[in-house]
Design brief:
By secondary structure, this protein is an alpha/beta fold. It folds into 2 domains: 168 residues, P-loop containing nucleotide triphosphate hydrolases (Rossmann fold), CATH 3.40.50; 72 residues, no CATH class. It contains 9 helices and 10 strands. A 6-stranded mixed beta sheet has the order 6-7-8-3-9-10, with helices on both faces. Helix 3 crosses helix 4. The radius of gyration is 18 Å and the shape is globular. The two termini are 31 Å apart.
């Protein structure tokens, strides 16, 4: 579904992504891990169009993704979530989803007005909320939700775009154990309907969810393999300072 070849992005003398090449197969959860500063978010930003690479290619379903600006990539089926939750706190949960549905069909003229959707849109939004486990929160103000529930709203907003590939940038960031478990369960239920590229520091989540793991160190992919083989890879163990971060019982904050 996604093929990245020789992708390079530099900031002065710093190579944030250094000749990165990897492929993501349709119907899989592909995890991207690496130490802080490895270039993970920079890579995600290039895929979503928020940064342009210095060189290299990105092909999405056979199409040259670099020809599309960031705001058109969701319409092509590539949607990103952020480390910091991005929702409309002053709107109800249902209106957050309706606003996305309207924007995808060109009806939303202003993000500052209340989403006024017709019955079919509201029904579709309700179905999406049911899917992510927030059906009973439809009429709640989004700003009053817990951090984990806001993450669920963000995922629901992403699903409203009917994505083919979800770019999830640390979806468990700032969560406690129970909230992380709920989001992990949600992502696991979505795996049959949407392909995911998951950037995550929680190794318990990574090794339970991922079909394949790529390891980024100093902007370079040092390994890309199954979770079992990644766990045993000596180069990866050394990159993670003796292997503690590859122990699924040890979580990194």
């Amino acid at each position: 579904m996604l093929k990245i070849q020789n992708l390079c992005k530099s900031f002065g003398a710093i190579k944030a992504t250094d000749n990165v090449s990897l492929s993501i197969d349709q119907g899989t959860i592909h995890a991207l891990i690496g130490p802080n500063g490895a270039g993970k978010t920079t890579l995600i930003s290039q895929l979503s169009g928020y940064m342009q690479p210095n060189s290299g290619t990105i092909t999405f379903n056979g199409f040259d993704l670099l020809t599309l600006p960031a705001h058109k990539r969701p319409h092509a089926g590539l949607v990103r979530s952020f480390q910091i939750t991005s929702v409309f706190p002053e709107l109800t949960v249902l209106d957050n989803i309706c606003l996305v549905l309207q924007s995808m069909c060109g009806q939303a003229q202003s993000i500052f007005r209340m989403a006024k959707a017709d019955l079919s849109e509201r029904n579709e939004a309700q179905e999406i909320l049911n899917r992510v486990g927030l059906g009973d929160k439809a009429n709640s103000l989004t700003g009053n939700l817990s951090h984990g529930q806001k993450r669920q709203v963000e995922i629901a907003m992403a699903l409203a775009t009917k994505p083919k590939l979800l770019l999830l940038d640390e979806p468990m960031a700032g969560m406690g154990a129970e909230e992380s478990r709920q989001i992990m369960t949600l992502l696991n239920t979505l795996r049959t309907s949407v392909t995911m590229l998951l950037v995550e520091h929680d190794m318990d989540v990574v090794f339970k969810l991922a079909d394949k793991i790529s390891v980024l160190v100093y902007g370079r992919v040092v390994a890309s393999d199954t979770p079992e083989n990644i766990r045993k890879n000596q180069d990866v163990q050394e990159a993670y300072l003796g292997g503690n971060e590859l122990n699924p019982k040890v979580k990194r904050c």
